[in-house]
Design a protein that fits this description.
single chain; 59 residues; 2 helices; flat; transmembrane helix; transmembrane; Threonine/homoserine/homoserine lactone efflux protein
Length: 59
C-alpha cells in the first residue's frame, strides 16, 4: 500500500512539473526572462552565502 501511494504521488508530481515546464518554455526562452531569472537566482545564492558567512556554530 505504501509503495503504491508513493508511486502515485511521485508520478502525479513529476507530470505536474513536466506540464508546468512545457507551459513556461516559450516565455523563459527570451533574453529578458533569462536575465531576470539570473538576477533572482544570483541574489538568492548571494543571500545564502552571506547567511552562511554570518552563521556561528555553537561550541
Amino acid at each position: 500500500m505504501l509503495l503504491a501511494t508513493t508511486v502515485m504521488v511521485d508520478v502525479t508530481v513529476m507530470h505536474g512539473y513536466a506540464w508546468l515546464a512545457a507551459r513556461l518554455q516559450g516565455m523563459l526562452r527570451s533574453v529578458r526572462a533569462r536575465r531576470a531569472q539570473n538576477r533572482v537566482f544570483g541574489g538568492v545564492l548571494m543571500a545564502m552565502g552571506a547567511m552562511l558567512f554570518l552563521f556561528k556554530r555553537s561550541a
